[in-house]
Write a structure and sequence with these properties.
Length: 616
C-alpha cells in the first residue's frame, strides 16, 4: 500500500500535502505494445473493466437475474431493428444455381437437340432473379443475358412470384414458358439452405448432347501410360533440364495481372483510412500490395506495403521456414471479389473496386460479375492563388518566373525552332487603319521572324510627303488582343488585320520569298494551297444545274470583254459579283497560278483547264 493512500481524503491534493513513497522500488512505465513472433500486439491486462457484482453473483448461483437483480429495462431509442429487413440482412447476398435447358435443332444430321448451360442468380435482398449464359468463344450463338433482373411470376398474369424456397436441385422450373433444369449450385447457396433448415439434395451431372460427345470423341487421343516418363527421361539424357510443371501456366498467363483497389481502416490512436492497390499475378499466383500515394499526406513515401509473394489466409508464423508440416491455404481469384475482406497478416482490408481488365477476366473466365462498392469520397481541399498582374519588366514569362519560384529562372526558349527557323523572315507591305483619313495613306513594312516569333515594323516615306520614315516599332513579341496569345506565322496572311498595341495594320502585299514560303508550307497556310482554293471554288457549282453551266457563267462574269486575259481587279470584281467569298490571299495565289505571261494577268484558257474544263 502506497504512502499517499494512508492520508485522509479531506487533505487537499496540493504541493506540500503529498509526499513521495520511500518504499516504492518499481518506477517503470507500463508498456502497452509488444512484438511477439513478428506481430505487433497490444496488452489489455491493465485495462480495467467495470462490472456489476450483483449480476456476477446471480450468474454464479445459476438463478434467474430477475429474482436477484431485477428485470432489464427495455432499451430506449434503439436505432438497430431487432428483426432486420431483407434489404439490410441479405445485402449483397446472391444465390447462384447452375442449370440448363434443352433447345431443339432442325435440319442437322448430327444432332436434333442442344444443351444450353445457364446460371440463375437469385437476389435475397429483393427477391429478383436474372438468368445469364456464359459466353463460349466462336460458338456462333448469341449468348449472354437471357432474363434481366426482375421478379418472375409463377404464372403469367398473377402476382405469385418465385422465392428461394422454390429453387431446388434436381428439379424443373418454368420461366416464361421455358423450362430450366437446376443441377448444381455454389457453396454459399448450399450453406444458406442448410442454415435455413432446408438442405439441398445432391447435385446431378450436366447431360451431354450429341455435338459435344462427338467433339470429345473426335479430339480424344489416348497416349500410352509411360509416354510422359519416356519423354522426361530422354530430355534429361540429352542434356535438357527437368520439366517445369508451371511453365504452361506461366506462358499462358504471363503479364496478366488482376488489379484491385483495397482500403484498410487503421483503428489505432493515430490511424486513418489507408488506400492500397493489390495486384494478383496469374502467372505464379503471387500478390503485391502498393500504397496509393497522395500529395501532402504527411506520410513517408513507402512504395510497398507487402512485397510480391503468396498471401496465406491464416499465416503460420514460425521461427524458421519449413518448421511446420501444416499446409497453408493461399488467396486465389475466387477469394478476391468486390465487397469481400482480405486479411493480410492481421490487417483486414476491404476490396471496393477493380480495373476493367479484372472485370472482363472475372466475367469471361469465372462467370462472376464484379460490382464495385461505393465509398464516401473525401472532398479535396482546393486553394486558389491568383496570379499577380504583369509588372511591365520583360515578357510575361519573366514576370511569372517570380510567382512560381522563390529563385526565378529565365524562361526556356525553343532552341530547335530558333536554329531551324531563324533564317526565315516574312516581310509584308501594310497600311495603317485609322479613323483619320490622312493616316490611312501611310505605308509600313512588317517583318515577322520565324525563329522566335518576333515582329518589327518599319515606316516608308516618300520625298516631300511630310512623313518621317524609319523604325516604327522595335523587334518584340506581340499579343493578339482577340485570342490573348502571341502572334504566330499562321496569323500573317494577305488581307489579314493585325494589331500591335493600339495600331491596326492590314497586310496588302508580300515579297517573293514570303509567297514561296507560304506556298511550301501549305499545311500551315491553308489559303496558300492552290488545290484547296480550286476545290473551294468548285464547291460553288452546287448552286447550278450542272458543272458546265457553272463554268460558262464563271467565264462570262470574269472575262466580260472576251480578251482571254484579265487583271487582278477584274478577277476580284467578278468573284464578288458571283458571290464567291474568296479571301485576298486566295485570290492572289489564284492569280499567280494562272499568270503564264508574267504580266500579272490571268490566262483564261489555263484557268478553264485548271478548274476542270475540257481542253478545246
Amino acid at each position: 500500500m502506497s504512502l499517499n493512500a494512508q492520508f485522509p481524503k479531506q487533505v487537499p491534493f496540493l504541493p506540500g500535502h503529498v509526499f513521495s513513497d520511500p518504499y516504492k522500488e518499481n518506477h517503470h512505465k507500463t508498456q502497452q505494445f509488444s512484438n511477439i513472433n513478428g506481430t505487433v500486439q497490444e496488452k489489455t491486462n491493465f485495462i480495467h473493466e467495470e462490472f456489476d457484482p450483483n449480476l456476477l453473483d446471480s450468474m454464479k448461483m445459476g438463478t434467474p437475474p430477475n429474482l436477484t437483480y431485477g428485470s432489464r429495462q427495455p432499451p430506449e431509442n434503439d436505432y438497430i431493428p431487432r428483426i432486420q429487413p431483407p434489404w439490410l440482412k441479405y445485402d449483397r447476398a446472391v444465390l447462384r444455381f447452375y442449370s440448363y435447358f434443352q433447345e431443339s435443332v432442325v435440319e442437322n444430321p448430327n444432332e436434333n437437340y442442344r444443351i444450353r448451360q445457364v446460371i440463375i442468380y437469385y437476389y435475397l435482398s429483393d427477391g429478383t432473379i436474372h438468368v445469364t449464359e456464359p459466353r463460349v468463344q466462336n460458338s456462333g450463338i448469341p449468348q449472354g443475358l437471357f432474363i434481366k433482373r426482375q421478379k418472375i411470376p409463377k404464372k403469367l398474369g398473377k402476382q405469385d412470384f418465385y422465392t428461394w424456397e422454390d429453387l431446388q436441385l434436381c428439379s424443373n422450373i418454368n420461366f416464361y414458358d421455358r423450362v430450366y433444369r437446376i443441377c448444381d449450385c455454389d457453396t454459399y447457396t448450399r450453406e444458406f439452405y442448410e442454415y435455413m433448415g432446408k438442405p439441398l439434395s445432391l447435385p446431378e451431372q450436366l447431360p451431354k448432347d450429341n455435338f459435344k460427345a462427338q467433339k470429345e470423341t473426335k479430339d480424344l487421343k489416348i497416349n500410352p501410360p509411360d509416354t510422359k516418363e519416356y519423354k522426361e527421361y530422354f530430355e534429361v539424357k540429352l542434356g535438357g533440364g527437368h520439366p517445369n510443371g508451371g511453365l504452361n501456366k506461366y506462358l499462358s498467363n504471363d503479364r496478366k495481372v488482376l488489379s484491385f483497389d483495397i482500403i484498410w481502416d487503421d483503428a489505432s490512436i493515430e490511424g486513418q483510412l489507408n488506400y492500397y492497390t493489390l495486384n494478383y499475378y496469374l502467372a505464379d499466383e503471387t500478390c503485391e500490395v502498393k500504397e496509393v500515394r497522395k500529395q501532402n499526406s504527411g506520410k513517408d513515401p513507402y512504395p510497398l506495403m507487402l512485397r510480391r509473394q503468396k498471401i496465406p489466409k491464416q499465416p503460420i508464423l514460425t521461427h524458421y521456414p519449413g518448421m511446420t508440416l501444416k499446409k497453408e491455404e493461399f488467396y486465389g481469384p475466387l477469394d478476391l471479389i468486390c465487397g469481400n475482406q482480405v486479411r493480410i497478416y492481421g490487417r483486414d482490408c476491404f476490396i471496393y473496386g477493380c480495373d476493367d481488365f479484372t472485370k472482363e477476366y472475372y466475367l469471361t473466365v469465372l462467370g462472376i460479375q464484379q460490382k464495385p462498392a461505393t465509398l464516401k469520397q473525401e472532398r479535396g481541399k482546393k486553394f486558389y492563388q491568383p496570379v499577380p498582374p504583369y509588372n511591365g519588366y520583360g515578357y510575361e514569362e519573366d514576370s511569372l518566373g517570380s510567382v512560381y519560384s522563390l529563385q526565378p529562372k529565365p524562361p526556356k526558349k525553343d532552341v530547335r525552332k530558333n536554329f531551324t527557323q531563324d533564317q526565315f523572315i516574312l516581310r509584308f507591305e501594310s497600311r495603317l487603319i485609322s479613323e483619320i483619313r490622312e493616316e490611312n495613306s501611310r505605308r509600313f513594312i512588317i517583318s515577322f521572324y520565324c525563329g522566335d516569333d518576333t515582329v518589327q515594323v518599319y515606316q516608308t516615306s516618300e520625298r516631300n510627303s511630310g512623313i518621317w520614315g524609319g523604325k516604327f516599332q522595335e523587334r518584340s513579341r506581340q499579343k493578339n488582343p482577340l485570342t490573348n496569345d502571341y502572334y504566330t506565322e499562321k496569323d500573317f496572311q494577305l488581307g489579314a488585320i493585325v494589331q500591335f498595341n493600339v495600331y491596326k495594320f492590314q497586310l496588302m502585299r508580300a515579297d517573293e520569298f514570303t509567297i514561296n514560303y507560304m506556298k511550301q508550307k501549305s499545311d500551315v497556310f491553308k489559303e496558300a494551297d492552290i488545290k484547296q482554293i480550286i476545290a473551294k471554288l468548285r464547291m460553288f457549282a452546287d448552286n447550278y444545274p450542272n458543272f458546265d453551266t457553272f463554268l460558262m457563267d464563271l467565264m462570262k462574269k470574269l472575262d466580260k470583254q472576251l480578251k482571254g486575259q484579265i487583271e487582278f481587279e477584274e478577277l476580284a470584281a467578278g468573284l464578288q459579283e458571283l458571290g464567291f467569298n474568296l479571301t485576298l490571299q486566295e485570290q492572289y495565289y489564284l492569280m499567280r497560278e494562272f499568270d503564264i505571261s508574267g504580266e500579272w494577268k490571268m490566262n483564261m484558257q489555263a484557268f478553264w483547264e485548271g478548274i476542270g474544263g475540257k481542253r478545246s
